[in-house]
Amino acid sequence: MNLSRPERYHLGLARAKKLRRLSDQHGWDDEDHSMAQYLCDDVSPYMVHYAMFITTIREQGDEQQRAYWTPKIEAGDVLGCYAQTELGHGSNVKGIECEARWDPEAHEFILHSPTLTASKWWNGTMGRTANHAIVVAQLLVPKTSNSSEYVNHGPHPFIAQIRDMKTHENLPGIAVGDIGPKYGYAPMDNGYMLFDHFRIPHSAMLSNYSRVDPNTCTYSKPANPAVVYGSLTYVRASIIMHARLIMARAVTIAVRYGCVRRQFQDRDSNDKQAPELSVLDYPTVQIRILPLLATAFALHYTGEAMQNLYKGTRAQIDKGDFSKLAVLHAQSSGLKSLCTELAANSIETCRRAMGGHGFGGGSGYIQLNNDYLSKPTVEGDNWMITQQTASYLIKRMAAAVAGKGKPLDGVDEVCREWLKSEHGKNIGPLNIFEDDWKIVQAFHRRSRYLTYQAYVEREVKKRSWNSLLLQLRKVSHAESQSILVTNFYKALHSPQSQMSPTLQGHLTTLFRLFAFYTMDAEARDFSKANAVSDADLDELPARIQQLMTDIRPHAVRLVDSWKVPDFLLDSALGRYDGKVYEDLFNRAHRLNPLNEITFNPHYKSDEIVMGKGSEALDKILAKL
Amino acid sequence: MNLSRPERYHLGLARAKKLRRLSDQHGWDDEDHSMAQYLCDDVSPYMVHYAMFITTIREQGDEQQRAYWTPKIEAGDVLGCYAQTELGHGSNVKGIECEARWDPEAHEFILHSPTLTASKWWNGTMGRTANHAIVVAQLLVPKTSNSSEYVNHGPHPFIAQIRDMKTHENLPGIAVGDIGPKYGYAPMDNGYMLFDHFRIPHSAMLSNYSRVDPNTCTYSKPANPAVVYGSLTYVRASIIMHARLIMARAVTIAVRYGCVRRQFQDRDSNDKQAPELSVLDYPTVQIRILPLLATAFALHYTGEAMQNLYKGTRAQIDKGDFSKLAVLHAQSSGLKSLCTELAANSIETCRRAMGGHGFGGGSGYIQLNNDYLSKPTVEGDNWMITQQTASYLIKRMAAAVAGKGKPLDGVDEVCREWLKSEHGKNIGPLNIFEDDWKIVQAFHRRSRYLTYQAYVEREVKKRSWNSLLLQLRKVSHAESQSILVTNFYKALHSPQSQMSPTLQGHLTTLFRLFAFYTMDAEARDFSKANAVSDADLDELPARIQQLMTDIRPHAVRLVDSWKVPDFLLDSALGRYDGKVYEDLFNRAHRLNPLNEITFNPHYKSDEIVMGKGSEALDKILAKL
């Protein structure tokens, strides 16, 4: 935290090299390397090389391309990045401006950035590290080999060398560099790159799916573009599992320090010598932290369920059966949106609940927050991708309303049941305090209700899509919450479960806390959906407070069960041994480089560092 | 953003000196100096010297002390800080552990920190800058001059020299330093300080209100301690005005960039050549930004009203009339909590609505957020101080229920009216879409309703205070929202207003947007309070969306009216001239020091910077 941005990149590169060398030395596999990287807890400048670059060559390159590039990549000579997003376009990939124009005479593609906004932007590992890039560009091909009219076949991936292999200087015709400091990700060199009619050979176009015939200019396109969705879904399932880890860290710190920290005696107590209360005993602290403790478990079970779903669907796809892809894609979009939002917000919620020390460097929240805040935006902006989930749900509801033939899938089926039950009306509100399964059903019923409302607006009243966006987001979140609640319930009632009755009891408390807390925030919808009675909804705040009181004595052991190591937490407040104040003092008194300098504070003097004369000031003011 | 923490302090001190010298040179008054400091947009290491230190000497020092210290302060020889908060105690000032023990033989106070948690902590300007400190310590005085039994008279302020006036080194018996990096406030040297039986003279105790007779050990205490509340209230009124400025900056950037940035064509459009839509045309972006545009105006009018209330109350207090102090204190506590929360959250909400570039250094949100996030905690933690507002409201409701004699004040009066109307029941829900004044009344009625519920729980059912904390916070927020809505309404309908009808029209749209948006988030309470009908509450989302559509074309001019200079915004996204992408590119390509270095990215090489050999790596790995 005392380093400058350039120093952070230096450190990041040094760590990345060290990790890779340790990996070679000890023969680590991918999992070992990932774990070491995770414990290092800082993004690596090599990250995009290991992830997107290698994967793209493997998936999009044809056999010959894979054979050519793989040995160079494995030897560490070729270091790559993935240049898709541009200054002016991110989510709307079809709108990118960088062009790859086929020159039929020279048998080359010409990469070109026709505008400033066509500049590649944000691409990790590109700013300073990579010497090669996957460049995604609009593929422009002449109609015929001697036509001057070009046809745009849309964005395609190309591989291009961007820096000299010896000097590491930019190649002529390319302007490439680091975009500068950001919220987080300090050691990552997110970059920009512009091409000025930069020529690359025919073999640069990754041709596993699409290709251009160099002689006839014929373009052939992929047989089934849906395969791409598969890996996107995998990334999103991983994002949920990662969100859970982030939340676990935030909550571990908050629960532990919430017990160590004491503030005020009980106002109603007569004992004037009573110790101050642990802040975690105050409902105002509990309400911020304990529902997040419950949410971390909810995310865990859904992350697990999504990974299993992905594996099953993947196996079906490999057999040519794409039937479950739509539901998987829809669920993973909505869950990515909801879960990363819950996790990102949880860090700041926990931090504020820690009082003044939450703002300090010893909190363990600063880098966690700065880095994680990218997640609500990347891999599909959280507000935008809820449309994908809602669109799918509306289609299924429309199919259920039409009611022809067999249901398309499980969602179509539950929509039909809901319609048959006259929108849940002929069975009345569910008694959520009697039976936990009724809680799950209440979430389902609300999701069906909101889906139906959206279906009516769009399909019956024919309202414009954009005017419905807020409603669509609500539909997506309701469905995602319903998935979280369902998977949590199923995990607790699985016949395979080997939980002790005590543990199951505590997790049941957390299940209810998560469900009721979520329900209370949107109580009116549950009422409108005829899912829960008004009387029961009125009772939720008191129930929530009781559940928090019940789980409070077990909170520390529940977070300890995650075993997040102190090394990773890097938090004085969240230490396993509770020596919060000793650690804070040590960081301030012994580990703070600012205390090694004695300053001259008098305003009439030009001198900044005592005894060093006025040159220090001159040097610094030059940076103003 | 490219500097390290130690460099940030260097720069901060250099800027502070420069500003002070400019002030001398040009004969700036306090307002000029504040404005220059504000435009500099970085906290000054001198800040606490100018604020708390000087004010405390002025208010708490007796005539002789003021005469002694003022010339030294004005000459800039004495540089002071304010050491109250400790490692283990912040909000609970009575619980601080640092002691000032009167030694009747030596006629000195002995400052001592008996535990680690007694260490002064967080105190600004103390870590590296100040040579003097106001030290708040428990005053321990012998029962009589020859008694060995000590009486604790509670926390009192003392002034102590802490560093050598020539060398600026710590004095013996004091451990003082900077606590290290934090979320924000990089140039501020928040400090820690421990005393080991450090002796200070009798004259060190600031004695305008309290004093210890050096011969008899008699302690005399202040006649009316309520005066202290006055300045706390002033600080809180300033916090609201400041919250408004923060929000104005966040919203200015978001509105401007929301217009420049385009994403996706209209899904329902048939024109395939249509330009992509400005993101501010999407309801999903509007709902995050436009209610904040409205909130910034709401905060403005209430900030203004609070300042006027403070001035009026202050004038009364100077005449010995303390009757309005309680309501002022209660209102300012609740408003501090609500308004700083709204402002702090607004920055991150706007940032996320900006897509990828919101995460970049050109957003203008990074330092704004990092610095402002201290506000929900300082000057009374936002969750804690809502108790003060609720406690006051419950007392007034109790008085109204008792109904004896004349009402104590305006709040007592409205409580009586509400009780007379049978809790609003005999007049039915208010027609909020017919008349804006009805909106204001609906907020009042909800606040009365929630106050009454809390009153019943506490005063009738005798429930414990701590078990009611969540409800109390709700009461406080409801009352604060009601104040915001009322002041906004009054400003628009003031007979003195010189607004054009057009402007009044737009501000009325914003008034409704703020009120309906706030109401929608807690709709059930308005229903339970019999303030708004369920049918009207159901209609709120559609009304809000329509109001946003209405104000959208005027959004840019409304934020431009605040005239936040580009110099202060320091945001590529929020530039007045809209040259967003040119500015982002300039920052990346020309102003980024990382691009001046060519690195050696190959993992087998120990070299980090190309051509510099392996020593660079050795140096950096030492920091791991």
From TrEMBL, chains A, B:
Chain residues that bind FAD: T85, G124
One Pfam family, short name: ACOX
Keywords carried by this UniProt record: FAD, Fatty acid metabolism, Flavoprotein, Lipid metabolism, Oxidoreductase, Peroxisome
Gene Ontology, cellular component aspect: peroxisome
Chief localisation class: other
Acyl-CoA oxidase C-alpha1 domain sequence ranges: 229-394
Domain Acyl-CoA oxidase C-terminal: start-end pairs: 438-604
Metabolic or biological pathway: Lipid metabolism; peroxisomal fatty acid beta-oxidation
Catalytic center residues: E379 (proton acceptor)
Cofactor needs: FAD
InterPro entries: ACOX_C_alpha1 (IPR055060), Acyl-CoA_ox_N (IPR029320), Acyl-CoA_Oxase/DH_mid-dom_sf (IPR046373), Acyl-CoA_oxidase (IPR012258), Acyl-CoA_oxidase_C (IPR002655), AcylCo_DH-like_C (IPR036250), AcylCoA_DH/ox_N_sf (IPR037069), AcylCoA_DH/oxidase_NM_dom_sf (IPR009100)
GO BP terms: fatty acid beta-oxidation using acyl-CoA oxidase; lipid homeostasis
Domain Acyl-coenzyme A oxidase N-terminal: 2-75
Gene3D superfamilies given in the database record: Acyl-CoA dehydrogenase/oxidase, N-terminal domain, Butyryl-CoA Dehydrogenase, subunit A, domain 2, Butyryl-CoA Dehydrogenase, subunit A, domain 3
GO molecular function, one term: fatty acid binding
Compartments, as annotated in UniProt: Peroxisome
Family to which this protein belongs: Belongs to the acyl-CoA oxidase family.
Protein name as catalogued: Acyl-coenzyme A oxidase
Originating organism: Friedmanniomyces endolithicus
